[in-house]
Amino acid sequence: MSASDLPDELWARILELGAASAALGFRDLCCLAIASRRLRRLSLHPSLWSDLLSRDFPSQSQPSSSSSSQQQLDPKSLYKTKFERHKIRMAEARRRAVYEAEGRLLACRKRLTDLEQSLCAEGDRMKAAAQELDNLERVRRASVALNVWQPQLVRGRQKQLVQQCTVPVDSRLSDLHMELKVCKQQVATYKNVYVCDLRFCQICERLTRLALL
Question: What are the residue boundaries of the structural domains of the chain, listed by start?
Answer without folding.
Answer: 104-212
